[in-house]
Structures are given as structure tokens and as C-alpha cells.
Write a sequence for this structure.
């Protein structure tokens, strides 16, 4: 049960998984993520990215260009959420049928 | 992604899954759940039970005893969260290793 709670704590909120999914097919800059994740404010995105980085689900790299550019990438550990995401997706579809189908 | 969000919305917070797990091995009365789910207040438990009932994950039955007794039970739909719970558990264990193991 402790492990289940750990997972939920890490994924808490409505934004973590959408952000991770947006990084799944390539590294992105802040504004690119902001555009892909519908409805998130920059302030919240910034906070969420910090938490994801702290949990080693993403990395933040500063490139020595001029001006410097910052790029976010998903880690192997972030990609290891695949099973969790598909279990949540399957159950979400089933739940929708259960609730709306009646 | 919508389906993933649906699932997370339904499971939101730290209490829903512990409550469901406590009902997994038998129907229970309010105070029995309250004792099993460490740290939850009666006010929050009451709110969480209502939300779980609304989402058809549990049922609430009033027995015509004197005084009336109320019993909570997990539904088939509630039990269908098994895959989600084990995916979260597996990932939680892995996450713990990743974060603490370094």
C-alpha cells in the first residue's frame, strides 16, 4: 500500500502525466511543452517541471548557446511509467462506460 | 490521455485507494474503515465514501436493524481497479529504489 501511495504522490495532480507524455516523443523547450499541455499556466508548468526533475522523471539541460536554451527530456525512469499509464487508460475507458453507459 | 485523466480524477487524493483496499476483503461499517485507514479523519472519510459511491466503486447499504446499521461494500467496478493498483505498486517500488538507491 505504501508503494501505491508513493506512486500517487509522485503523479499527483492533473498535469504530471500530460507533461511526461508530451516529452515522450522528443525533447522539448518550456514553451513547446506549454503549448502541448492544454490549459496549464506557465507558473504551474514551472512548478510541475521542478517536481518531475526532483523525482528523476525528467532532466533539464542548459545548452551553451547564445542566448542559453533550456531543454527538457524524459528519463528512462520516466518512461518506465508506461505500465501505469496504460493501466490507468484502460480503467479510465472502462469507468467512462460504467458511468455514462447506464 | 482523457481516459488517463479520468482515472486520476476518480482516484485523486491519498485516501481513495486505501479505503477501497480496506473493503476488498469484506464489507465494513464506517468505524471499521476508519480504524483500518490510518490517519483519516471521520469528516474526510465521510466525504471520500460519498465520492466513491458516486463513482460506483462502493455501495452503501442501510440495514433495517434497530438501531439501523450502515454497511459499505466494494463493487465489481471497484474491484476492476486491480490492474491499476498493481501497476502503481510495482512502479512505486521501482521509484523508491531509484530515488533512495542512489
Amino acid at each position: 500500500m505504501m508503494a501505491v501511495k508513493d506512486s500517487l504522490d509522485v503523479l499527483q495532480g492533473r498535469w504530471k502525466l500530460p507533461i511526461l507524455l508530451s516529452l515522450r516523443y522528443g525533447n522539448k523547450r518550456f514553451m513547446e511543452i506549454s503549448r502541448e499541455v492544454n490549459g496549464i499556466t506557465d507558473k504551474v508548468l514551472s512548478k510541475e517541471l521542478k517536481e518531475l526533475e526532483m523525482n528523476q522523471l525528467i532532466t533539464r539541460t542548459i545548452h551553451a548557446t547564445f542566448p542559453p536554451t533550456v531543454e527538457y527530456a524524459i528519463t528512462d525512469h520516466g518512461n518506465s511509467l508506461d505500465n501505469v499509464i496504460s493501466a490507468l487508460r484502460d480503467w479510465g475507458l472502462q469507468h467512462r462506460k460504467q458511468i455514462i453507459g447506464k
About this structure: The CA atoms of residues 7 and 84 of chain A lie 9 Å apart.
